[in-house]
Design brief:
alpha+beta, Metallo-beta-lactamase, Chain A
Length: 301
């Protein structure tokens, strides 16, 4: 007879995880690590996508290496230890920078000594941690397969973390023979940012762009700011060779950015298809892009 905890995990398979693994990952170089909760892929020289395929967010964090130090752009769910994975990938000091501070992107922040933070009230509030948000992420329909051995559902929280230094738009981090620069992209949240590695043509977009319905329905979302941020990113497309989002699939062509900007402007103008998605939300689709908005959609013209 299966233990109750294991039986609960294997009783049903959520619909979202039935198509996994995503075929796009076959084209990427997988890097073996000891923790099966994570999958790691080398997406560019000195650049690793750390993917969590067993939770519905399918969050992707990025480890970016220089000669002196590394930055981890997001730290995932905190369901298993992401710092243990980074130690297998580099012996250099690792500092944290978050694309924004929703719980699925800061779950491992407390595992690191140094964390950059945007100077917003939203960031400061989320640095205090959360139990409710974390618990929602491990509901039965949110997990695909087994949780890590020894994981305690009742004790799972997004742990409190300390902001070591406040940063801002244009702030640069010297990693040693490699520099990454913050691009403020408020909209999804007040503290949303992108990260650009200009020398290598890499643009990390966080939750401003990823290949799935983009969440723009929560109270902290500012639609005007989101449109302005997407427009800003679209202008960078000629300078970029690769776009790296924070969910589902790590690699996209830069040509997606101006198309994204056009799509959100069209949706705000009432174009595209609308489909209800749960209580008080709807998916607005236009030319291959999907946006999950409050219904009636906040900010529609």
């Amino acid at each position: 007879m299966l233990p109750a905890s294991l039986a609960a995990q294997t009783r049903t398979i959520p619909e979202w995880c039935k198509p996994l693994p995503r075929p796009e990952y076959k084209a990427l170089m997988r890097v073996p690590v000891s923790d099966p909760w994570f999958e790691v892929y080398k997406v560019a020289p000195g650049t690793f996508a750390i993917y969590e395929p067993h939770q519905a967010e399918e969050v992707i964090s990025y480890l970016i290496l220089g000669t002196k130090q590394a930055v981890i752009f997001d730290t995932g769910m905190g369901i298993s230890s992401i710092s243990r994975v980074t130690r297998q990938l580099t012996a250099k000091p690792v500092v944290v920078l978050n694309s924004h501070t929703h719980n699925d992107h800061v779950g491992g922040n407390s595992e690191f000594m140094f964390v950059y933070g945007m100077d917003t009230d939203f960031t400061r509030k989320n640095a205090l941690g959360s139990r409710a948000d974390a618990q929602a992420e491990i509901a039965p329909d949110e997990i695909c397969g087994n949780l890590p051995p020894g994981f305690n559902r009742k004790m799972y929280v997004t742990k409190k973390w300390k902001i070591s230094r406040f940063v801002h738009d244009g702030f640069k981090i010297n990693l040693g023979a490699r520099t990454v620069e913050i691009i403020a992209t408020p909209g999804h949240t007040p503290d949303s940012i992108g990260l650009i590695d200009r020398a290598n043509g890499l643009l990390f977009t966080g939750d401003t762009y990823y290949p799935a319905p983009i969440w723009l329905y929560r109270p902290e979302t500012d639609m005007d700011a989101y449109v302005a941020s997407v427009t800003r990113l679209a202008a960078l497309a000629p300078q970029v060779q690769m776009v790296l989002g924070a969910h589902n699939i790590p690699v996209a062509d830069p040509g997606v950015l101006p198309k994204l900007a056009d799509a959100i402007v069209a949706v705000r103008a009432g174009k595209g298809e609308v489909k209800a998605e749960g209580t008080g939300k709807a998916i607005h689709a236009f030319q291959g892009f999907k946006f999950l908005l409050a219904e009636p959609a906040k900010g529609l013209d």
